[in-house]
aminodeoxychorismate lyase
Amino acid sequence: MSMLARINGVAATHIALTDRGLQFGDGVFRTLRIDDGRIAFWQRHSDKLAQDALALGITPPPAQFWLDEIAALGLRDATLKLIITRGNTPRGYAWPADLSANCIVQAHAGPAHRADPAGLKLCVCQTPATWQPRLAGIKHLNRLENVLARAEIAAAGCDEGVLLDRDGAVVEGCMSNILLLLHDQHGPALITPPLHDSGVAGVMRSVAIDAAAQLGWAIRLQEIRLPDVLAAAQVWLSNSLLGVQYVSGVGRQIWTPTVHHAALQQSVRALLSKEWHQLLS
């Protein structure tokens, strides 16, 4: 099935040339799944979408607006993209105070992507993550670095790629967040970059952190370098389509799933069982 879309409560196939998302990438978005009429971690998605919009000074619609729009599409299984742009202006970066946001739902029907039991092959991208503290953590529409990095990943024959910042610290994957399992004298610790200056704070990153905390693991938001990745007992990538997927290798370093991987997956499923939103009966 081709893509279905709704803009501001109306079925649509086109967007205005004056939309600021098209002109400047002036907006935010989220990608998520509806599976058998249910949306996983809906409250987290809607909260993060609203927070990101407000961080850019854009007033988001209430969460119920999105649920009504998704239901209007009538799809039980689909990949969804929810987009908020600042609205329409003829030209120039400035905007009027009374500008109304454009709220867009895109849907591609079809079953969910299933995790590859062989894990994900990872490479290191030459395209760096942009340093911009004001936008750090926000899933905004300016994604050119990810577009360039994705081309590198395809050329390398890998599944995903690591983006480094200007100082060589690990920020995230091109399409995901990165999480490491390290062991010290106190036991397992889940390590992930703090994302103070770059990157997107994804919903599944927060789920993985909560799932690890439920297991009693230490949680550390700290700078990561490539040697830390290579020394990790396990490496995961997370996003809302993959879930929390283990990395099988980067370069010559190979990992296989451990008991800690199984424990984390079980903990994620336990959270999911409590955080489904039943949209369609």
About this structure: Residues 39 and 277 are 5 Å apart (CA to CA). The chain has a mean pLDDT of 95. DSSP finds seven helices and 16 strands in the chain.
